[in-house]
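Input chain follows. Return structure tokens only.
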Amino acid sequence: QVQLVESGGGLVQPGGSLRLSCAASGTIFGFYVMGWYRQAPGKQRELVAEPSNGGSTNYADSVKGRFTISRDNAKNTVHLQMNNLKPEDTAVYYCHLRGTFYSGLWGQGTQVTVSS
């Protein structure tokens, strides 16, 4: 059974940086991609960054130029480098996996709080 575990969240001042990690345990079969979503209090969960079928990465307009997703296939791990953080980035960040045999798996989430 595949499980996703996020880490790296915390409290940071505006303009600061954080690096989130998501490690997938178990064997993942078929083609798959892992991306990042977030959910702020009182708001719906939204896509932050996710690789596309064409090989490029889809970023939310609000994070373009500030966030970067990267992967380590050998370790079944994805990272989210977040720079120039803003208060509106405050949310629970979730790792998400989809693929040939996975319609949608979620991690437990990691809290990111941007505040002075």
